[in-house]
Design brief:
176 residues; mainly alpha; Rna Polymerase Sigma Factor, Chain: A; 7 helices; DNA-directed RNA polymerase sigma-70 factor
Amino acid sequence: MELVNVDARRKRFEAIAPAVIDAVRRYLARRTDPATADDVLSETLLICWRRLDEMPAEHLPWAYGVARNCLANADRGRRRQARLTARIATLDPPPEVAPAPAATGTDLTAVLAEMRPEDAELLRLWAWEDLTPPQIAQVLGVSVNAATIRLHRAKLRLRKLIEAAGHEESTEGSRP
């Protein structure tokens, strides 16, 4: 009997996995470097397999939430490594290196980098992942109302930053 459950579980995971893999890979590619994205994708899939019985019918927002948490863990690990590197560098400093040139222009990536990380993530989930406020709420682990309000405020902040950067406001979709 146990073999039947394992087989059914495997089939369910195999049916869900392609959509999860593609969507989570794109989600991570927009948020981190390729090596970290691959590591986090692997960890996300492992957690999805382990917690398959907890996965809701609408599995993609749930998987985004798992990937988001795994990426946060990877970022914390990277920060710990950077602190360790800084401590080592004070004991044995590397040779002087010229600073990288500053980026110019005000593309969307630069504008998002100026925003609070929470606001930028909301906007990415909405615009890049094409999630609705209820799905965003599931990813972030907040109420639908909170996600809707935060998304609205993040859009307003984005508009202000774009206008401050000298771009004209888009009239697309506005009412006369």
